[in-house]
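Record type: monomer structure entry
Structure origin: computed from sequence
Chain ID: A
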Amino acid sequence: MAQTEEQRRQLTTLKGIADHAVACLADGRLEWEVWLKHAGRHGRYGFTSTLLIPAQRPSATDVRSYDAWQRQNRQVRRGETGIRIISTGGKPRTVFDIEQTDGQLIEKPELSPAEGLRWLSRLAADLDFYVDRGQGWSYLGPPERRIKIHPELDDTAAVTLLVHQLAHALQPGGHLDTVGLDCRGVRRVMADSVAYVVLAELGLDVSQMSFPPPQRWAGDDVRTDSAAAIRVVGDQIVRTGNRLKRRLQDLSKPGRSTATVVTERPSRPQETAPVAENIDQASDVSTSHLRAALAEAHRFYRKNLSESWGTRYLARRGFTPEMQEQWQIGLAPRSRRSLLQHLRELGHSDQTLIDAGLAKQPKRGAPFDLFRDRVLFPLRDRDGEVIGFIGRRRDDAPGPKYLNTPETVLFHKGDVLLGLHEGRPQLAGNARPLLVEGPLDAIAVNAVMPDVYAAIAPCGTSITAAQIEEIGLSADLNASGLVIALDGDTAGRSGALRAWRTLRRVGGPVEAAVLPKGRDPAEILSPTGHSSVREALLSVTPLADLVIDEKIQRFGGALEFVESRLAAAQAAAALIAELPPDQIVRQVTRVAARTGMDPSEVTSLVASAISPDPAPDASPVQPPSPEGRSTGLQRTSHTTPPRRTHRRKP
């Protein structure tokens, strides 16, 4: 308990420091270029850490954990004070700057603008883009995959423009700048800032870049939440910059296949991606080949959706081509080895595809594609990278309606939520998190009610504590709370009870939208079900009401007898005892009205559930001993006969 309290105190302090830094960005006390310099140095630890590290050590240039420095043959000097940051898991973490260590010299190579342009052009080709710098022949591919750079631009301006365009392309639903599209405001700040972070990492000159103050694009009116806008934009900049750096690192892996890129001179085989030394995340190094395979599989699936049964099926359900493109939906062909053969040609091994959850190895015979003849929805991690898929079969096809990527090193079903990455901008505003059942539900609600809800879907499982923590990293659950969409039948009531055990830990209001029987949120796009589904989603009820009512019905039935009313009240009291104090009185009143019991009797049952009487033979807990054995409060015995209980092992 002491450790938990200390951790909570540290988190509160660190979050306060970060909030102050965001406020300084919002009012101009901290210049945007100064923050970008720190984002380039420390962005791999997340947006919040780019604020915490310079607040504690302004001169920090390269921070890593104690163990990470040891892996680099450097040792943290005795007596050095660590820099406290917040890990991606939401816990305090200690890192040290290179100035606080001794040991082997770490050199950071710097590139010329021409070398930087060559590496970024290779990266663009790896992302399936064509870099057109006036090579002299016509480009016949999709126009949205063409990045045009005027041949008269020098290498510094060309590489800056190239990263700017890649930053746009990597955003969910993102698109490149074109002649008819004016890049300005937040959109330009985001793309230019990503270019600054990536170019600085490559050791290229960024002094020519300039940025408007945040007041210009985040707003300075007291009615606007400029701090929230800065957090969203800053988080997107850090995440997109990390993705580009990681992809650059992937290109340096031995045997890595990449498309041919036309540059002014061929890249040298002995060149190594310059960011490899600067990313010390061991997990990224060990899983980079899996991420590369998943990214290329996603591009393969997306190309197969066009003119397929999948796009027609989605259109019938009300999902427009724009929505399909925004959510980057794909389709797995019916052939057993179409993806397998495609990725083999790109240099990926069968074992990599099996480890990534893309292929399946039978006990006998050759491996085959896991997803076949299914519409595929990508599942993303915190950085927006694809780590798995949910596949929806045809209505008349055999097999499970939905099929998930199996558990892998990157994908853990109980941790991932479809739509959370795409819904972060909405969650930073006034939208509330809405838990729905499937991917079509999430996409439909986000399309029709983006200002009300950010709809997210578990991957075919009940909501977990880990998923709640993930939502809490993107939304202030103490303020917004959370809504869950439930079917209006017996299965829906059972689902509410299962979800309640996890959702009760949310600090804000937890409510339920009970849908009409036989309806689902995806029907909000249907003309026939639009009004009833929309009305149900807007008419929320406290989830605790539904759970307690379900208990009363289960244990009390028709409440015809005194015994059934008492049993129902006892079952409800056990749940009421788990509620926050400010909700207990309301539920006591409700249960008393439902069962016909006096409120004082229900209150007594709740009190007994909160603090049950101990058994008469319970031994008193001894006071602290000098040797430090565990202690507690002394209890007195009662004459009430003991009640035998059976508990599951923890």
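Annotation 1: The first strand starts at residue 63 and ends at 64.
Annotation 2: Residues 2-27 form the longest helix (26 residues).
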